[in-house]
Amino acid sequence: MTRRERNWLLVTPAAAWFVVMLVLPLSVIFVFSFGERGPAGGYVPAFTFEQYANLPARFTAFKNTMILAPLGTIAAMLIAYPLAYQLAVRTDPKWKIILLVLVIVPFWTSILIRSYAWIFILGGSGLPALLEMVGIEGVRLIYTPFAVLIGIVYGYLPLMVFPIYVSLDRLDKRLLEASADLGARPFSTFLQVTLPLSIPGVATGCMLVFILLMGEFLIPALLGGGKVFFVGNALVDLFLQSRNWAFGSAVAFTLIVIMLVTVTVYMRLIARLHSGRQDISIM
């Protein structure tokens, strides 16, 4: 067997899985998006752009998704980075495993149960009641964009922590010592050494969380109370309730295109930033 044949043999299972689990479903959604809704719902074959012309009807869902998903990603990154830095750089090795386990403990419980817990915390008997006890009245937290933002940051925070932690844990500590020996202050060392070398982990964590948030529907449904809904909620309504599969496919395919464009631009910016720092370090 030649090397080329051996390479094809190794790639074929992954390629087959990619085609069956990704390409074919996307192809079906693309075809359905040009169809029409049947009299009893579902899909009727056709070739029309009517479904794409109706996309403004779901503008609110796209707006909420495109605002809260990036905000949730940024907020999760800002919280996860100090935590990952503390675990990777400043924590005694004998405590790292225990603390990492504590980070993933929330994943041992269903996101449904954790979201209901936040309904109680943000509801009238939770934080608003505590605020009333200290004289702050009329605060409404549940069923607001803020509640959804809290829920998505809490739900996806561990997925942001681990890529950043891995990137920081692999950091050569001798670089930090060399920077200190050369007279750099701790903050300067962080900006010039630690942060640039951890960018791949930050990029991976942000991309992972952002992609998942773009398709989120459970947290907005529970903590948004039908007032703050994502595209995922619109898709659930279109496919399962109104049974408008053609319009739902158009919405889904548009969301996929937005995600592909956003992720492509993001990865190009990260690659350009990384290559630019490499050029500066070489000079």
TrEMBL record:
GO terms for biological process: transmembrane transport. Keywords: Cell membrane, Membrane, Transmembrane, Transmembrane helix, Transport. It is found in: Cell membrane. It comes from the Bacteria. It is a multi-pass membrane protein. The chain crosses the membrane at residues 7-34, 66-85, 97-121, 141-168, 245-267. Residues 62-268 form the ABC transmembrane type-1 domain. It holds the Pfam family BPD_transp_1. One of its GO terms (cellular component) is plasma membrane. Gene3D superfamilies: MetI-like. Belongs to the binding-protein-dependent transport system permease family. CysTW subfamily. This is ABC transporter permease.
